[in-house]
Amino acid sequence: MTAWRSIGKVNWGWFITAAAVLLLLPLVMETHTPSVLLIWALFAMSLGLMWGYAGLLSFGHAAYFGLGAYTYAIAAVNMGESTIPLILSIVVPAIFAAAIGAMMFYGRISDVYMGVITLVVTLILFKFMSATAGDVYRIGDARLGGFNGIPGFPTLNLPGFPEISLFGVPTYYVCAGSLLLCYLLCRWILARSFGRVLVGIRENETRCELLGYDVPLHKTAVFTISAGMAGLSGCLFANWAEIVTPSIFSLRQAAEVIIWVIVGGLGTLIGPILGAMVLGMVKLLLGEQTVIDNSLILGLLLIVVVLAIPSGVVPALRRAWGLRVRARRRSAKGAGARRRLGGRPGEQQ
Hints:
Elements: H1 2-7, H2 12-24, H3 32-54, H4 62-79, H5 83-106, H6 111-130, E1 138-139, E2 142-143, E3 150-151, E4 157-158, E5 161-165, H7 169-191, H8 193-203, H9 205-210, H10 215-241, E6 243-244, H11 251-264, H12 270-286, H13 294-308, H14 313-343
Antiparallel strand pairs: 1-2, 3-6, 4-5
Helix pairs in contact: 3-7, 3-8, 3-10, 3-11, 3-12, 4-5, 4-10, 5-10, 7-10, 8-10, 11-12, 11-13
């Protein structure tokens, strides 16, 4: 029972410390790069939730990231403000994922075919959005733009006040707040019976069905929740970049988030967050040079991590810390026992 409770447990000390660091960070550095790292962290955590806890690997998670970005851009162009577009950027990818998930999971599609289907969906969206050049491809006032994408849409504004734009530090705080709130949401989900069923599905799907749980429903639900969070991260990315292009659906984008989660560590929420931040920073630094392709470096890092620490960095560090703590406790107990035996009068005579 203790193991189940630890799945959804929030370490409030670490959480408050992280929140304080994020709150004070703009006082010591510019926020442009930290903002995109937080966005990527949210994107990776959305995949880590369903892959790490329910065992559902989507090779096309970038589809919902891109849908969130395009939905926001199109809605913002047509509405001129950001409140409803922000909500739609979560709802549209979630509904899209619910439809695909229901067809896959109630159709008893195997894990291999699930990976193929999700990847194909992403590539279809990439090809379609790349072929939308010309005035004929528009939704309301928003031209899809083909490879050029959609630039110049209204960015986030204060709800109810379209003229007050949130740019720079306010956008950073929106990204940080979104990540923290989604992290708490994930912990809350995992602490409920729903989260325990997800872990049960990951460990033994057949046994969960024999116990009477609706496995396809649980799979579809977590698939939908993860897509909604990915859509939110896509919306934030669109506001950070101030342009949306079909590259957001690319195979490279789909592969990167999988690498972030693997390196950070499956079965955790912190792992994907740290993996996205660290590797995202590496990606940005490598992008400043032209000698080595950054995809090659990320691929080599993935190979090294998979061979050296298959479980990922964060789970490996946790195990090492746990072994160290247990060794200290055993050493302290042994020393205490020796002191008790040696301290009693007449026992050493």
